[in-house]
Each structure stands twice: as structure tokens, then as C-alpha cells.
Design a protein that fits this description.
mainly alpha
Length: 178
């Protein structure tokens, strides 16, 4: 009789574990979808022409620096030049942020895949699976925050570029002709 009770308890314990496993794997799948959404949004917001834009802004600044000879610069032009210079300097941090997000997404994808494999195979510390899932979800939330920060910074930088580049490029070219 004790054998049957023990078998019943073991069967119940393992069947509950399997039910919990399914729920945990579903949470990981949801996390993987959220991570894929972050990756898609990041790729949509990539600046494909960043090296061309950086080169163009450097050329404009050099033409103005080398050819504008004034004792004083009017306030409006000075502000535009200052904004333009700050915008140009933003491209390096933008590129690093993009690269860091790509790396972070790859690392998180690997962590989720490893966790899913551990749960599927019953490896590691089973009693900590839920804690690991929460930890990985927090990392995904951090990636989303970093993505939003990147997008905001990119939009502000590109807005400044589109607002000032044509005007300052035109000014810099007229200085050469003088």
C-alpha cells in the first residue's frame, strides 16, 4: 500500500512539474516574441547612411571653418553652427548605441534559448526557473528602454540634420566661390 501511495505522489509531483514546464515555456516564447519586436523596431530605425551623413557634415563644417572670415558671427548663424556641430558629434554615440542594442538582443536571445532548453530538459535548478524568467524579462524591459532612448536621440539628431544641412551646405559652397 505504501508503494502505491509513493508512486501516486511521485506521479502527481511529476505531472505538476510538466504542467508548470508548459507554462514556463509559454512565458519564454512570449519573451522571445517581445525580443523579436524590439529587434524589428531597431532595424526599422537604423540610419543606413550614417557614414555618408557624417562625411557630408564634416565637409560642411570644414568649408565654413576654412572659408568664413568674419570678426563677428551673427547670433542666428552662430546658434545654427553650434546645433550643427552638436548634431555631427551625435553620430558616433548613435552608432555605438545601435551596436550595443544589436549585441544585447543577441545575448538575450541566446539566454532565452538556453533557459528554454534547460526547462525542456529539466536541467539546472528547477526551483529557480521562474526567477530566471523574471530576470530575463527585466533584461528585455531594459532593452526596450534603451531602444526608446536610441530612437528619441536618433530622431532629434536627424531632425537637426534635415533642418540645417541644406542651408549650411549652401552657405559653405558660396564661401568657396568668393
Amino acid at each position: 500500500m505504501i508503494k502505491y501511495i509513493l508512486l501516486f505522489l511521485l506521479f502527481t509531483l511529476f505531472s505538476c512539474s510538466d504542467f508548470h514546464k508548459k507554462e514556463q515555456l509559454e512565458k519564454i516564447q512570449l519573451s522571445q516574441r517581445n525580443l523579436s519586436d524590439i529587434e524589428k523596431e531597431l532595424k526599422i530605425n537604423k540610419i543606413d547612411t550614417i557614414s555618408k551623413i557624417r562625411l557630408a557634415t564634416n565637409e560642411v563644417e570644414l568649408r565654413i571653418k576654412n572659408n568664413l572670415v568674419l570678426d563677428t558671427i551673427n547670433l542666428v548663424l552662430g546658434k545654427k553652427m553650434d546645433d550643427y556641430k552638436r548634431m555631427r558629434k551625435s553620430f558616433d554615440p548613435l552608432g555605438r548605441s545601435y551596436g550595443n542594442l544589436i549585441i544585447g538582443i543577441g545575448e538575450e536571445r541566446m539566454a532565452l534559448n538556453n533557459l528554454a532548453a534547460d526547462i525542456q530538459n529539466g536541467e539546472g535548478e528547477r526551483n529557480k526557473y521562474d526567477t530566471y524568467i523574471i530576470y530575463e524579462n527585466n533584461k528585455i524591459k531594459q532593452l526596450k528602454i534603451l531602444l526608446n532612448s536610441y530612437i528619441s536621440f536618433k530622431n532629434k539628431t536627424m531632425e537637426t540634420f534635415f533642418r540645417l544641412h541644406d542651408e549650411l551646405d549652401s552657405l559653405s559652397r558660396t564661401l568657396i566661390k568668393v
